[in-house]
Amino acid sequence: MNIKLIKVSKTPSDFEIISDKITFKGFLQYDSDKLFRLDAEIKGSLPVICDVCAENYEMNIDEKIDFFISDGLYKASNESLIDVVEAIDGEADLDEILASELELVKSDYNTCSKCKNS
Ligand SMILES: [Zn+2]
Q1: Which of 29, 97, 109, 117 is the most buried (most CB within 10 A)?
Q2: How many A from CA of 117 to the centre of ligand 1?
Q3: pLDDT averaged over the chain?
Q4: pTM
Q5: Which residues contact residue 49 at a Cβ distance below 8 angstroms, ignoring those fewer than 6 apart?
Q6: Per-residue pLDDT tens for 22-54?
Q7: Which residues pair with 86 in a beta bridge?
Q8: For residue 46, how far is its CA from the centre of ligand 1 (angstroms)?
Q9: Cα separation of 80 and 68, whole Å?
Q10: Do the bridges between strand 84-87 and strand 56-71 make them parallel or antiparallel, or are there none, so unpaired?
């Protein structure tokens, strides 16, 4: 799902993406300059591999994400600490954002409940 940034205003644009057992839900809102705020949550379960026993298991996810999307290249002003993702062609690719967030979760150190309890 792509959202054209030009259509995003100060009024939050809600979105919801359901992919397998994951729901990615939140809103996009124009902030200032070329920046748009993305505030969303990712909930559901994701198949991951246990780093201890190498078994597949379903991990519950409940993550809040909050960052900015810039329409085009973003030049950070000296000490800005905000997270900015650059959008190409004036569109926010929400599937891509979801996929990269899930990759982060997968690349974390994950342990299944059996290994956690032993
Ligand atoms: Zn395990």
Answers
A1: 97
A2: 9
A3: 92
A4: 0.86
A5: 55, 56, 57, 110
A6: 999 999 999 998 999 999 999 999 999 999 999
A7: 70
A8: 15
A9: 12
A10: parallel
